[in-house]
Amino acid sequence: KVTRVKAVENHWRKTPYVAEVEAMEIPEPSARRAMLETGEVHVAVVVVKDLKPMLDAGFKKAPGAIFYGRNALSFPGNYWEKSHFVTGKALGYTIPDKPWAGNPDNPASMEKARKVRWALSMAIDREGINQSIFMGLGRPYGMYELSVDDPIWQDKWKITYDAAGAKKLLTEAGYPDGFECTLWSGPTGDEVTLMEAVAAGWLKDLNVRCTIDKGVYGATIRPKIIERSNTIIWRCGDGNSQYPGTWPKGLLLSTLAAGGYSCDNDDAFYAKNYMEMAKTTDPAKLKQLATNHFENLYQQRQVVGMPENPGGLLYNSKKVVE
């Protein structure tokens, strides 16, 4: 897929630096690296293992574009709102029969599912993944929608790797022998290696046996996410580390996103908190509401943070001046 855009002269904000940009969608990381090396493209995103050799060869990262990509794991199916938060329209979502999905009409089910989500999140060796996959260039801690370098980050929200504690929780939840599941990674790149590492850790520590789904996002998993029928644990990235923690949070964890993209969970807490954040510009109130959001997310773990991976956007300094 190729997209071409041309500069708009005298644009209201500024005239672009270049006359035309051609963007190509190249899924295979080795092909992107080769095209950058041969000069077929001037700018490309490379996987982490290619960063150092490419930098050593003279390719450069744009100054000011220093950020980390954030990955997260969504445990889908916790549809706890029965109707749309604003309109009141009944949505009729079905809670799947999965260990991590709780039924709000059954308190025992809710607690069992919460223990499963805790167990799975505790059995991820984030520091080990950062060292082995991201070459120590990433950051092991973070949570969905919040980076470790954000001013409102609190160290108490770190998810510590604890295999024994995770096994204990999974046993308490009724799964001493583990269970089977599917993880979606996407077809190529660092994310595949990341999800394979998660699956290997769960197998070793919890006997949770995972199949990796490498299907293309738009063709396979996205339609099921939109219709709220997805039951696959999936990698839902939420942008990069520069997104402020006090931006309104919770839209994608509630029925406010009904009919569109979401993180496959609906909790009225997040809807209410989001609406309050969206209506205020008071920095102190935004900070408190954001803190409430992340504290609830930490406790419930419908979506859990993963290691932040370093940005891999490189350019050919022989072709691009700055």
Write the layout of secondary structure elements.
Elements: E1 2-6, E2 20-24, H1 29-38, E3 43-45, H2 48-56, E4 60-61, E5 68-69, E6 72-74, E7 78-79, H3 107-122, H4 126-132, H5 163-172, E8 180-184, H6 190-206, E9 209-213, H7 221-227, E10 233-235, E11 265-266, H8 268-278, H9 283-300, E12 303-305, E13 309-310, E14 313-315
Parallel strand pairs: 7-11, 8-9, 8-10
Antiparallel strand pairs: 1-2, 3-14, 4-14, 5-13, 6-10, 6-12
Helix pairs in contact: 3-5, 8-9
Task: Describe the 3D structure.
The chain has a five-stranded mixed sheet. It has nine helices and 14 strands. It has helices at residues 29-38, 48-56, 107-122, 126-132, 163-172, 190-206, 221-227, 268-278, 283-300, and strands at residues 2-6, 20-24, 43-45, 60-61, 68-69, 72-74, 78-79, 180-184, 209-213, 233-235, 265-266, 303-305, 309-310, 313-315. The chain has 322 residues and is α/β, with parallel strands linked by helices. α6 links the parallel β8 and β9. α3 (107-122) packs antiparallel against α5.
**SSE ordering:** EEHEHEEEEHHHEHEHEEHHEEE
Given as residue ranges, the uncertain stretches (5+ residues, pLDDT < 50) are none
Helical percentage = 25-40%
Mean pLDDT: 92
Which term fits the overall shape?
A: globular
Largest sheet: 5 strands, mixed
Number of E strands: 14
Give the radius of gyration: 21 Å
Order of adjacent strands in the largest pleated sheet:
9-8-10-6-12
Q: End-to-end span in angstroms?
A: 26 Å
Beta percentage is 5-15%
